[in-house]
Design brief:
Elements lengths: L3 H15 L2 E8 L12 H5 L3 E8 L2 E6 L2 E6 L5 E5 L9 E7 L2 E6 L6 E6 L25 H7 L7 H7 L8 H11 L12 H20 L40 E5 L2 E5 L6
Antiparallel strand pairs: 1-2, 1-6, 2-3, 3-4, 4-8, 5-7, 6-7, 9-10
Helix pairs in contact: 1-6, 3-6, 5-6
Length: 273
């Protein structure tokens, strides 16, 4: 599943092509993804100018005067800008057509979303999918003190707390394993038992790891490509993720792996305590 770095890579790739451009048409070929795609999407978007592209967690937000187009890539979704779009293939579900090209949403498993939030319904931050998200990791509000205060008395494992996204958003499975390794914290450690100094280190590693992943174009394990079709390369330098049984790049101890709630967790038993 694309995580925050992958979504940010897509946002940065799309923004120069769609910001301050007028939509000519919206074509919906799959009326149902994870939730129904608005049946009147063409009527809402045609003639509207996209004033910018934002990101909230793993959601892409395309701003228009009448509202906000909300897109989530799900597990296998891609959103590409095609100057000369070929005829749609079987999994090409939604096109937003501009005068100079087409923004095409493709999703073989249909777990993603293309939704509309009308301005009359209030700020998009109050949308049910966005309202309960934690702080952005690059926000000035995010630091070790925030995580420390939010986890007092919490018995949930620190990795599961990060994945939940209620404290900080965007630290998905790959980057949770990587940041916890870099901070020297075992993934199974109860969040409430971690002290302020270790949370300070973890917050710094979350920022640094996500920033590095964005610069590397994200991680391509299966389906992810950027808006230009390019793969990401962060996974080539992972310390622990997807390296079960291989020697730790720091201490040479074999990396361990276990399954937690249908996700794989990787850690070094020596470097992480």
């Amino acid at each position: 599943m694309p995580e925050l770095p992958e979504v940010e890579v897509v946002r940065r790739g799309l923004a120069p092509h769609v910001a301050e451009r007028i939509v000519r048409a919206a074509r919906v070929r799959a009326p149902m993804l994870r939730w129904p795609v608005p049946a009147d999407l063409d009527g809402r978007l045609a003639g509207q100018r996209c004033t910018g592209v934002q990101r909230r967690g793993k959601y892409l937000l395309f701003d228009f005067s009448a509202g906000v187009l909300i897109v989530h890539l799900g597990m296998t979704g891609t959103l590409r800008f095609l100057p000369d779009a070929p005829p749609p293939a079987v999994h090409d579900h939604v096109d937003v057509v501009f005068g100079h090209g087409t923004m095409r949403y493709r999703d073989p498993r249909r777990f993603g979303a293309v939704l509309w939030h009308d301005r009359g319904d209030g700020p998009v931050a109050a949308h049910p999918l966005l309202a309960k998200l934690g702080v952005e990791p690059f926000s000035d509000r995010f630091d070790g003190a925030l995580m420390h205060a939010a986890t007092r008395g919490r018995r949930v494992a620190i990795k599961q707390m990060l994945l939940a996204g209620s404290v900080v958003v965007g630290v998905g499975n790959i980057y949770a394993s990587e940041t916890l390794f870099r901070a020297g914290i075992r993934p199974s450690t109860p969040a409430g038992r971690i002290g302020r100094a270790r949370y300070d280190a973890l917050a710094a590693e979350i920022r640094a790891t996500l920033a590095e992943a964005i610069e590397r174009g994200g991680s391509t394990l299966r389906d992810f490509v950027g808006s230009d079709g390019a793969s990401g390369y962060f996974q080539l330098d992972c310390f622990v993720y997807d390296r079960a049984g291989q020697p730790c790049r720091v201490c040479a101890t074999p990396i361990r792996m276990r399954h937690d709630q249908q996700r794989s967790t990787f850690w070094c038993p020596r470097c992480q305590t």
